[in-house]
Amino acid sequence: MPTPGRKRIVRAVERAAARDGFDLDPGQRALLHRIAELGERPGARGLYVHGAPGRGKSWLADAFYAALPTERKTRVHFHGFFDALNRRIYRHLGEPDAVERAIDDLIDDAVFLLFDELHVPDSGDARLLNRVLAHVFDRGLTVFATSNHAPEDLLPDPNWHHVFEPGIALVTENMDVWKLDGPTDYRALVERHDRGFAAGSWTRVRPGGPPDEREATLTVAGRTFAVVAADDGELVATFAQLCEAVTATVEFLRWTREFPRWTITGIPSFDAVDPQAQQRFLNLVDVLVDADVRVDFSSAVDLQGFLAAAGGRPDAIRMVSRLRLLQTSPAPDAARAAHD
Hints:
This protein has 2 domains: 4-179, P-loop containing nucleotide triphosphate hydrolases (Rossmann fold); 190-339, Rossmann fold. It has 13 helices and 13 strands. It has helices spanning 4-19, 26-36, 57-67, 78-91, 98-107, 123-138, 165-174, 239-244, 249-258, 275-291, 303-310, 317-323, 332-339; strands at residues 46-50, 73-77, 112-116, 142-147, 175-179, 201-204, 216-220, 223-227, 229-231, 234-238, 261-267, 294-299, 327-329. The strands form 3 sheets. A 6-stranded mixed beta sheet has the order 9-10-11-12-6-13. Strands 2-3-4-1-5 form a 5-stranded parallel beta sheet. Helix 1 (4-19) crosses helix 3 (57-67), helix 4 (78-91) crosses helix 5 (98-107) and helix 6 (123-138) packs parallel to helix 7. The longest helix has 17 residues, at 275-291. The chain is globular, with a radius of gyration of 21 Å.
């Protein structure tokens, strides 16, 4: 029988869904009753929820987190957490157990940790995440993680997968694994385009147009980056400046705090750039969506063509789902032809 505490959490999440104007589907409802068990006692066995993008994992996780009846809880998103963690590790350099001290700084006295959008893009993050997982489980935290990937599919590169095998073992030893599946990508059904990332657009432009002659620079931690313009709360930059230059997620996070609106131009076909530029673009879209920044993208490739070219990269599925939130516009010549 569900306990009164579980019932309160379920009712609170159902009310949140009603406020947002939708009903939970059967898969979401089953997951809600499972995650409500996490709030019953400190130190409960964790839960790792994975599945295709847009099925409601993050929404459910956030609604549950809001309903969780304790202040001793922490919610983190992959990129923001690792940025903050690296800065804290730097503060503790030279101290014993610098990584564990940095983790404790960020988690404080929490007994519950929500880790949203967990993924492992490279071996460096894998090594650090191994230590994070080991430490939080040693502390007895209840961990609720969402991901687009089953634990065994994290860091799929066969040359590096072995680096994260200790982390996979920690997940499966300390967490139940639940797949949230369903035929509907709810992001593709978004009808409101009046705020945040969903207010942005993807416009197809004619190739070979005149370049923008403006030029500006941004500085982060002593490093200088060229952009087209950065003023009045808007950042304008080319794909090459953001993703083909040597940029990192720390810069993207900084700029989303400084600029609530972005314009990104000169976006090539996804398969026309090298894997490093692809990864930077994946990270950039993650950061922009999490910060809920409005972005207007322009490319010689229409959005459907861009997403189709990204389909060959397994870790691009989250980006594909998120870019479908955008409004789309055809190339000027195509728009004129449609009215002739």
